Amino acid sequence: MADTRRQEQTRRLLSLAAGRFANNRWMFGAGAAAVLGLASYAGAPKAPVFCALGFLVFAAFLAPNRPRGQRHAGQTAATDRGRLEGLSARSLAEAVGDPLIVFDRAGTAVHVNQAARSAFNATAPGLSLLMKFRAPEMQSAIERVRTGAVDNEVVDYTERVPIERVYRATVSAIGRGTGLNVVVFKDQSEARRIDRMRADFIANASHELRTPLASISGFVETLRGPARNDAVARDNFLQIMQNQTARMARLIDDLLSLSRLEMKPYLPPGATVDVRQVVESVIDSLAPLARESGVVVERNLGDQPLEARGDRDELFQVFENLLENACKYGQAGGRVVVSVEIAGGPAAEVAVTIRDFGPGIPEEHIPRVTERFYRVDVDNSRAQKGTGLGLAIVKHILTRHNGRLTIWSKPGEGAAFTVHLPAK
Ligand SMILES: Nc1ncnc2c1ncn2[C@@H]1O[C@H](COP(=O)(O)OP(=O)(O)OP(=O)(O)O)[C@@H](O)[C@H]1O
Ligand SMILES: [Mg+2]
Q1: pTM for this prediction
Q2: Are 309 and 414 contained in the same domain?
């Protein structure tokens, strides 16, 4: 037993020593060559030479290894640094995704990268930047950096052709005394658009809430003053106030609905819905509104189940909104047709169309009706107790369902809203 352990230890020691010797072989080789070279040059006796060689062998067995990874990482970093230093500034500039222009002391472009060539028309080496970028802030930034007054300057710049884009331009000197400068453009258009949308949204939402609030506050004042003892006026005003609070509540519900939808952009996998059955129940639930509006709802639904991937409650909200709009705004046509179709093929889809025969939507408004708070006729929508958020909610839900909404309309002939959903 003890023998086996001793053998195992010896084996491990030998393998460690062999590994160290293999790793340090270059050190040993170099040392041995130096000793032999010196010995033959100086004609030294053999004994000290053998001693020196023996010492080198001994050292090669004992000297610890440098970890492989560390050696490798050190070598890689050194090679990478070398490669970076050998890299041309031109290839570096080309690799930058933002528009970038290198220019000289005279303000003439020396290099224009690919992104700058596609962002700015007719921009090439040799062009004078002061001629190209005429905005006073850009001119002053280029001028100040070019003449060495400052090392760098950041300015906003708007390019109007081919489409308006807003950039944040950073103009900087390259190194010290190179006489070269660079301007890099960061596109801010998308961020600005989102900021504007957010500001518009808040302005619209507060305006929509302020209107009924102002009306309620006016009636409260009248009830406390001139109409204090007028029972008929009091009933009348209280009714209006109730309607206004209901409108505010509806608006808040719609806003919450939109924000909830924004919080959950993806549909859980595996959810399926019988679209025909959802459409049937929406028509049933809106029967009182149809009756009130004097509209007959015709069903063209077939009788087989039509399965689509989707969330039942959300799709209910979609069809409810569309049918409600058809009854409210297409009232004059006196009839609404709801039809369901399935398109086969590789992109199988279920299409539900809600068609009314009312006044329709003028062509220029069609692309905008799904925007939040957008109404074709604001007074008519308010009179119909609309908040202008219905179609925005529809669009959001359909995006979540990987579906889409198409709108057809001819003024005087009505409108048709079609919901396309991927079939299961
Ligand atoms: N079938 C239709 N015929 C004519 N105009 C329509 C029709 N459907 C929608 N519109 C127009 O589109 C606008 C936006 O509709 P949307 O459903 O988003 O809002 P709303 O009906 O005013 O309010 P909400 O649906 O929140 O009650 C409506 O105000 C209306 O002007
Ligand atoms: Mg609506």
Answers
A1: 0.65
A2: yes
> Residue-wise over 169-194: b if at least 16 C-beta within 10 A, else e?
bbbebeeeeeeebbbbbebbeeeeee
Q: Which atom of ligand 1 is nearest to the CA of 414?
A: 3
Counting ligands in written order, the one closest to the CA of 375 is 1
How many residues are there in the chain?
Answer: 424
155 and 258 both lie in a single domain: no
Domain with 35 in it = 2-83
- DSSP designation for 128: B
Q: Is the CB of 386 under 6 A from ligand 1?
A: yes
Last residue of a domain, one of 187, 203, 229: 187
Cβ pair 419, 398 in contact under 8 A: yes
Q: Are 317 and 382 members of one domain?
A: yes
| Nearest of 113, 147, 110, 148 to residue 129 by alpha carbon | 110
Instruction: Assess whether the C-beta atom of 255 lies below 6 angstroms from ligand 1.
Output: no
- Give the atom of ligand 1 at the shortest distance from the alpha carbon of 391: 18
- CA 314 to centroid of ligand 2, rounded, Å: 15
Q: Which atom of ligand 1 is nearest to the CA of 376?
A: 31
Contact 195, 205 (CB under 8 A): no
| 8 and 74 share one domain | yes
- 146 by Cβ neighbours in 10 Å (0-12 / 13-18 / 19+) ranks as buried
Give me the tens of pLDDT residue by residue for the chain, a chain 424 residues long: 455 566 766 676 666 666 666 666 776 677 777 767 767 766 767 777 776 777 776 666 666 665 555 556 666 777 777 777 777 888 888 899 999 999 999 999 999 999 999 998 888 999 999 999 999 999 999 999 999 999 999 999 998 877 889 999 999 999 888 899 999 999 999 999 889 888 988 998 998 899 899 999 999 999 999 888 899 999 999 999 999 999 999 999 999 998 888 887 666 667 889 999 999 999 999 999 999 999 999 999 988 888 898 899 999 999 999 999 999 999 999 999 999 988 776 668 999 999 999 999 999 999 999 999 998 988 877 777 788 999 999 999 999 898 999 999 999 999 999 999 988 8
CATH of the domain at 112: 3.30.450.20
Q: Which two tokens stand for residue 284?
A: 């049933």
